């Protein structure tokens, strides 16, 4: 087509294409649009040279600038580590008692411990550290193995009834089904139930007191206040690890359940364990 | 007095004239606005001085707030989330004051537009003000309209290059100063200036200055009227704000038409002639490059420079000012009805003038009372209502607040003695830049006792907290209720009080207990 065809109505040049009498007008793209378009092409070429872009057989071109999002992440993580390193070193160097006495360090350790708790501990103790039957509530003021900061630290570091750690807390309540008569078990269960609340069968309580003195006081104490050295719980308070009520107590006397907790010292390192101890201590029951 | 043929006729055509209209993406037609002088030009100089003065100088005003707060009168401290405005300090949760001001600005814009048209566009819009400023520079270096057209058409020479370089250099200096002034609103101005020139300021400061320098230079120097015509939404919205009683810059064709360069000759031939001598002065001064005689159009920013230009021509030829004037559509239409010959349906200027050649009495002129209409009264009412509400809120606002977050996981903790403990995160907001001693106490639940985490105090019903100046103090509070007092649905109040000023605030907190029987 050598001759320009002009559309009569609009006065615009046509491309010469025609369908069913309708001609296509040749309106050029706006110049700013075209230049933007060319600029994006130039940009794309430059970008694919400067940055990782072209897929190869097993890898991709790395680009002249050597940019990598992985390296960025690594640097950011390193910077974050660096930023908190002074605190981490202080936590590492100080005892848990000293950390607790330093408000700034305590704040850091509580926050770090809270994060570590969410990763490692909530599976058993619950996301609010509220526990569940068999798994102690860490918010309250009843501690099986002691609630001061050193005792909490010791418990987390070495665990409870954990085979892999020599310093782990160990204790075991015998299965009294093999030791006591069923009637004696009922009596002692009635006695223990009466210590905090109501026994189902109050008339068994006096006999139960005798059974308790003979068989249980060695660990739980004559006053039934428990013994934290042995992890023997206080039976007089409002908190029960497994269940309250005479029937449940009788069951626990016959065939006691024992919880276990891993030793976290080896796994998480001393700093994390200290942070966890500070966090658990901050939950409201710390002594 | 000049004869109308002696009035210089300017060679100029409106950029959007219907005759030569092109598709939207046609190349730009350059506009070379001529210098205008007159009442409105004077007024615009004054407004430029005030607005630029406010913009450039505000960050440098000092305001003593004592040792615990910055001494800059207007400061948006984003890092610390504080907004200082003279005696007012705003915390993030009080940002609704700013939102309220923005709503007022919006309604104010409606009010102004429905009363005096696009006064915002014509006088105070930053685009208008900076273009005006850039034009001052351009005129100073390259001369007025004709000299600039000549220079623009001339081939490149040493003199042209020198002028252009100087012009753009000064524009850039203004642009940098404009971008530079912006950042001083966000940090201590004197210190930031020192840091900025020695290269120690934050990268975001340099980025901001660079971006605002670019936008000022490009919008104010290079794009000018195109920003208003193509980029700004306001020209599109304004039609909804205007009504037949809004003042707007109007060419009064009822006395101007038929326009004639040779009025005397035409009159001698028995033809009717209007006041417009078709000198094009109104087009030449227009920064938008339009012809107001084509009627109201979206490009018109109502800067009123054409009024000045036309008035000076009317003065020269001894006619009344106001051939181009601020007029309402209602007045314009009633005057048009008077001027239009019912037979020929053309404008006959003789119909608007009496035997002495003065405008006759039936011609409508603007009356101040027209400003008070239902629409403007509603706008003004809404505007004042919000203003008064904000003012009352501001004057009665608390500078000491307490926010309480109750623990929800766990909701409560059973303690060894059977009592129930609830945990609360109590946030004390000390919103004055002075340290304060604040007492937090409980009201209600007389048996309940509280302890504060990290404070080695015995259980009690009140605790004294040292609050840092202008800071939020967070404390963890445990409240314990003995077994005998447990009941569902109980609540109590946390009360905070500054003993010195007896300012106080309170929060009603629930006390969660286990369901009965559990």
TrEMBL record, chain A:
Keywords noted in UniProt: Cell inner membrane, Cell membrane, Electron transport, Heme, Hydrogen ion transport, Ion transport, Iron, Membrane, Metal-binding, Oxidoreductase, Repeat, Respiratory chain, Transmembrane, Transmembrane helix, Transport
Transmembrane segments: 32-54
Subcellular location: Cell inner membrane
Biochemical pathway: Energy metabolism; oxidative phosphorylation
Cofactor details (free text): Binds 2 heme C groups per subunit.
Coiled-coil portions: none
Cytochrome c domain residues: 108-196, 203-284
Origin: domain of life: Bacteria
Cofactor(s) listed in the protein's UniProt record: heme c
Main location: membrane
Family (UniProt): Belongs to the CcoP / FixP family.
Described purpose of this protein according to its UniProt entry: C-type cytochrome. Part of the cbb3-type cytochrome c oxidase complex. FixP subunit is required for transferring electrons from donor cytochrome c via its heme groups to FixO subunit. From there, electrons are shuttled to the catalytic binuclear center of FixN subunit where oxygen reduction takes place. The complex also functions as a proton pump.
Subunit and interaction comment: Component of the cbb3-type cytochrome c oxidase at least composed of FixN, FixO, FixQ and FixP.
Name this protein carries in UniProt: Cbb3-type cytochrome c oxidase subunit
Species whose genome carries this gene: Aminobacter niigataensis
Taxonomic lineage from the root: Bacteria, Pseudomonadati, Pseudomonadota, Alphaproteobacteria, Hyphomicrobiales
UniProtKB/TrEMBL annotation, chain B:
SUPFAM superfamilies: 4Fe-4S ferredoxins
Regions crossing the membrane: 43-61, 95-112, 169-187, 199-219, 377-396
All residue ranges annotated as the 4Fe-4S ferredoxin-type domain in the record: 267-295
Keyword flag Transcription: no
Pfam entry (one): Fer4_5
Keywords annotated in UniProt: 4Fe-4S, Electron transport, Iron, Iron-sulfur, Membrane, Metal-binding, Transmembrane, Transmembrane helix, Transport
Domain of life of the organism encoding this protein: Bacteria
NCBIfam families, sorted: ccoG_rdxA_fixG
The protein, known as: Cytochrome c oxidase accessory protein FixG
Originating organism: Aminobacter niigataensis
């Amino acid at each position: 087509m050598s001759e320009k065809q002009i559309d009569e109505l609009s006065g615009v040049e046509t491309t010469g294409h025609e369908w069913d009498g309708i001609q296509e007008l040749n309106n050029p793209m706006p110049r700013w649009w075209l230049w933007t378009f060319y600029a994006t092409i130039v940009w794309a070429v430059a970008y694919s040279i400067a940055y990782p872009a072209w897929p190869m057989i097993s890898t991709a071109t790395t680009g002249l600038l050597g940019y990598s999002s992985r390296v960025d992440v690594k640097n950011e993580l390193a910077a974050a580590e660096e930023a908190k390193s002074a605190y981490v070193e202080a936590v590492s160097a100080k005892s848990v008692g000293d950390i607790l006495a330093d408000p700034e360090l305590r704040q850091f350790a509580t926050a770090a411990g809270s994060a570590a708790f969410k990763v490692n501990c909530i599976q058993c103790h619950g996301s609010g550290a509220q526990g569940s039957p068999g798994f102690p509530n860490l918010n309250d003021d009843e501690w099986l193995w002691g609630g001061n900061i050193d005792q909490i630290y010791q418990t987390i570091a070495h665990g409870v009834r954990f085979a892999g750690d020599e310093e782990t807390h160990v204790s075991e309540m015998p299965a009294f089904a093999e030791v006591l008569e069923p009637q004696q078990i009922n009596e002692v269960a009635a006695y223990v139930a009466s210590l905090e609340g109501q026994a189902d069968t109050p008339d068994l309580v006096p006999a139960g007191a005798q059974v308790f003195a003979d068989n249980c006081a060695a660990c739980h104490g004559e006053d039934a206040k428990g013994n934290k050295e042995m992890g023997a719980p206080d039976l007089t308070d409002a908190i029960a690890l497994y269940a309250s009520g005479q029937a449940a107590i009788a069951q626990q006397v016959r065939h006691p359940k024992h919880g276990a907790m891993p030793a976290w010292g080896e796994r998480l390192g001393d700093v994390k364990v200290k942070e966890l101890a500070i966090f658990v201590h901050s939950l409201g029951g710390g002594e | 007095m000049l004869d109308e043929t002696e009035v210089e006729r300017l060679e100029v055509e409106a950029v959007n004239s219907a005759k030569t209209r092109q598709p939207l993406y046609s190349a730009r037609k350059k506009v070379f606005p001529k210098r205008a002088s007159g009442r409105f030009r004077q007024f615009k100089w004054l407004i430029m001085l005030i607005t630029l003065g406010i913009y450039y100088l505000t960050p440098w005003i000092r305001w003593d707030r004592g040792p615990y707060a910055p001494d800059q009168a207007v400061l948006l401290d984003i890092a610390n989330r504080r907004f200082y405005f003279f005696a007012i300090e705003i915390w993030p949760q009080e940002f609704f004051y700013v939102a309220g001001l923005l709503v007022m600005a919006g309604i104010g814009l409606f009010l102004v537009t429905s009363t005096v048209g696009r006064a915002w566009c014509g006088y105070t819009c930053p685009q208008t003000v900076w273009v005006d400023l850039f034009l001052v520079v351009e005129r100073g270096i390259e001369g007025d309209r004709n000299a600039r057209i000549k220079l623009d058409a001339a081939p490149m020479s040493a003199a042209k290059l020198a002028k252009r370089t100087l012009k753009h250099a000064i524009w850039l200096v203004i642009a940098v100063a404009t971008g530079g002034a912006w950042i001083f609103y966000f940090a201590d101005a004197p210190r930031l200036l020192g840091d900025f020139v020695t290269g120690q300021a934050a990268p975001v400061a340099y980025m901001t200055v660079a971006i605002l320098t670019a936008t000022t230079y490009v919008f104010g120097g290079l794009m000018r009227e195109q920003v208003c015509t193509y980029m700004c939404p306001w020209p599109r919205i304004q039609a909804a704000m205007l009504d037949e009683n809004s003042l707007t810059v109007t060419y009064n064709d009822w006395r101007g038409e038929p326009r004639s360069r040779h009025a005397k000759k035409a009159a001698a031939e028995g033809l009717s002639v209007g006041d417009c001598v078709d000198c094009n002065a109104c087009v030449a001064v227009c920064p938008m490059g339009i012809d107001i005689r084509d009627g109201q159009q979206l490009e018109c920013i109502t800067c009123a420079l054409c009024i000045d230009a036309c008035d000076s021509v009317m003065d020269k030829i001894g006619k009344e000012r106001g051939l181009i004037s601020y007029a309402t559509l209602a007045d314009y239409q009633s005057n048009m009805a008077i001027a239009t010959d019912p037979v020929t349906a053309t404008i006959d200027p003789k119909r608007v003038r009496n035997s002495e050649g003065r405008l006759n009495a039936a011609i409508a002129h603007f009356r101040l009372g027209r400003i008070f209409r239902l629409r403007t009264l509603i706008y003004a009412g809404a505007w004042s209502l919000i203003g008064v509400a904000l003012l009352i809120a501001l004057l009665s606002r608390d500078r000491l607040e307490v926010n309480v977050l109750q623990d929800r996981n766990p909701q409560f903790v059973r303690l060894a003695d059977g009592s129930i403990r609830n945990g609360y995160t109590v946030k004390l907001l000390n919103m004055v830049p002075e340290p304060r001693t604040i007492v937090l106490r409980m009201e209600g639940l007389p048996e309940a006792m509280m302890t504060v985490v990290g404070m080695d105090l015995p259980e009690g019903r009140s605790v004294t907290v040292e609050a840092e100046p202008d800071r939020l103090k967070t404390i963890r509070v445990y409240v314990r209720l003995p077994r005998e007092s447990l009941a569902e649905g109980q609540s109590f109040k946390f009360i905070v009080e500054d003993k010195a000023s007896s300012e106080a605030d309170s929060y009603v907190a629930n006390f969660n207990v286990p369901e009965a029987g559990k």
